[in-house]
């Protein structure tokens, strides 16, 4: 793995061109696997090289990005957001991300104050300025702040939109996506339900997800799959869960985010003639699954090899998971309506 200090050391010459993003840690990718970074050079003479934020109408180098502590997005987590990604210079399903963001905002009675087309343009401009060919792109709409510090009257708050593009971040690094990983079902915490903090609106209220991550770590696993209050499968810290049983896919229809990756996984399954259904998935079905995959923008399609220390299927990445994972990454390069090339010269 390339460390930040390695990068700093490799960037002390007279050239402004660096082979990888400044400050980024490029995770190792298994040689010959479907996950490979672009090979390109970044012109670090631009202050925007390697990361850009758009805040209150201004493009800033990511290192200078700051927002008010009086924003209720911070104080009350009163917001919604989405994370899209750029791979090999193509942004993936931006339209779907914007639809989900604006749907969530509408449910929360938040007005982004920008049209979908305007948000798309600003997002693509952030990526273009950053020069990043592999990028993690965050768009957040908050309730904002008022003229008076700490204003409580919701009608007096000016909603804010923050957008940034930074080097790719992994929920599941490439090695785990290729070789699989481990999960537990937390004993001490359940996923918030739709009548509390609605998980279908993407949000930063990660108390349950973070507690689950700590429990996983304490029990020697990499991540957690949370159940809801009915003991049905909900989702994990930053991912949707898809199970495979007898050649069919299923994923929870409630108490989980309508993930863009899961939507893609279902479309891939459909193109392969594999049935995929959104429905209740019981904890029993989870333990008895032939294959389990964790699916997310920041982690593609990751096989779960073990659950609570017990093998899922053969305890290694299953055939459907592998086929879908490989197809998912192939989509990042194939011309289609799902991807749009970033105009880095524009
Ligand atoms: N569930 C949660 C709680 C998430 O935070 C995420 C993504 O960050 C997902 C599911 C997967 O959603 P997507 O595929 O749109 O990234």
TrEMBL record:
Keywords: Pyridoxal phosphate, Transferase. Pfam families: Aminotran_4 (PF01063). Gene3D superfamilies: 3.30.470.10, D-amino Acid Aminotransferase, subunit A, domain 2. GO terms for biological process: amino acid biosynthetic process; carboxylic acid biosynthetic process. Its cofactor is pyridoxal 5'-phosphate. Transmembrane segments: none annotated. One of its GO terms (molecular function) is transferase activity. SUPFAM superfamilies: D-aminoacid aminotransferase-like PLP-dependent enzymes (SSF56752). InterPro entries: Aminotrans_IV, Aminotransferase-like, BCAT-like_C, BCAT-like_N, Class-IV_PLP-Dep_Aminotrnsfr. The keyword Transferase applies. Belongs to the class-IV pyridoxal-phosphate-dependent aminotransferase family. This is Branched-chain amino acid transferase. It comes from Mycolicibacterium poriferae.
